[in-house]
Amino acid sequence: MPRFASCRLIIDAEPLPGDWNMAVDAALLTSASEGAPPTVRWYRWLRPTVSLGYFQSAATATTAWPAELDVVRRPTGGGAIVHHHEWTYSCTLPQLAPLLRHPYELYDLIHQALCAAFEQLCGVTVHIRGAAHADAPGPFLCFLREDARDVCCRGRKFIGSAQRRRRGSLLQHGSILLKASPWAPELPGLVDLVPEVEPRLAVAGEEIPRWLAGTLGDLVTFGELTPAEQKLAAQLVQEQRGAGGRVVDRSPLEIVSQANSTEARSAPR
């Protein structure tokens, strides 16, 4: 499969707040829609955080979890995720045509790369589910839902991803569950399923982001957010949250779209 000439890799060294994480992913998608190179980002969460899918009700989140949990809204759809003991990746592509015939092929490309990485780096057999019963409405939590592209270990989903398209560009981000969170103990992580992998995770956590970036681009360049991306992400963090509210009521991408619509309406004709 043809790849891009290069891919930017951003590794956030420290865990970050949930509203910042979602704002950065939205800023990277906006940047991709304006011609920025393919980018893989690897990050973690400062505090246990519930992220809602783009179309999910915030009211459900406020009643389902205690007030000490942060709640944010993702730019992507799907079910809610309790981000705690996990790694999270995102990748943004400026155009689908050079790489993929269909956006869903990116799920396969990234998930197959993750399967190979975990098998080689951790010595654990993982697989793509390959079949699922998705006719009925899904549970509120993403990791209780089944999709044919889920990455599973010993029959349990531990990697799930979601996408959002904008102006021909594509954002895909996904969670890699390492351990069960006390806020969602029914969802085991990889270490709960295969305890012997835990000593290998430190090395795997350094190598897997490089592996993903190398899947998309022939040349991997380590980078960071541009000043424009930093500025947009900071603006989105400020605008997402209502006055003193616990829940981020709007997705950062919704804010970007509304701002662009306002600019278009106010532009001189």
From TrEMBL:
InterPro entries: aa-tRNA-synth_II/BPL/LPL, BPL_LPL_catalytic, Octanoyltrans_LipM/LipL. Pfam families: LplA-B_cat. PROSITE patterns: BPL_LPL_CATALYTIC. It comes from the Bacteria. The keyword Ligase applies. Keywords: Ligase. Coiled coil: none annotated. Residues 34-241 form the BPL/LPL catalytic domain. GO terms for molecular function: ligase activity. PANTHER family: OCTANOYL-[GCVH]:PROTEIN N-OCTANOYLTRANSFERASE (PTHR43679:SF2), OCTANOYLTRANSFERASE LIPM-RELATED (PTHR43679). This is Lipoate--protein ligase family protein. It comes from Schlesneria paludicola.
